[in-house]
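Human:
Care to share another protein and its fold?

Assistant:
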Amino acid sequence: MAARAVIFDLFDTLVDGGTTRRREMIARMGVDLGIDPEVFKAAFRDSYRERFAGTLGDMEQTITTLIRRCGAEPDPEAVAVAARHRVDYTRRLLTPFPGVLEVLSTLVSDGLRVGLITNCSVETPQVWSETQLAQYIQDPVFSCRVGVCKPDPAIYRLALDALGVSAAESVYVADGAGGELVGARDLGMTTIRVRAEGVDHATFGAIGDWDGPVIEDLTELPGRLPELMAS
């Protein structure tokens, strides 16, 4: 069956996941908030499931909750500054890898629908419309907006429904952190791994039992899509 849609992961697939920079940024937030950087980093890391599910509120509410978990009392002005810095950092992070926009443009020109499923916290959808990616990607699915994360089958179904396609007509492309490829494959989607360096599997989970198609660079995708669909 020919593909009608290609659905992408975001971090470490279309844009840098920023593992090292993210840790440095969170440590700086701790300093600005008057909290030991290592303590704040640990609280931020340990909250990722809640943040990705959108249960901690907006960024200021999230930071306020984490400060209290660190045993401190939040200062509203410092919280607002830290939240702005976090949003600005995310805005910079959502810069596409070289060649990504050309890949997306080619897929759209070929008549394919292009979607997105990302496990993320609230600052990502907050700045999404400002990114270069937004012009190509229809109906992105942000975990923090829908309250469910990969590899739960429900989040893939939401993306498929939004694009009006079946799993068999769709390709899911990702670096594979947290078992996302296996989750998509189990639903019946064609799944393709893009190799990514420096992915924070220690936090977000390993690739899992993956023996499917792999491409070294996303720019390979348009030319190899028929072959990969058949494999």
Remarks:
- The first strand starts at residue 5 and ends at 8.
- Strands lie at 5-8, 113-118, 141-142, 170-174, 190-194, 214-215.
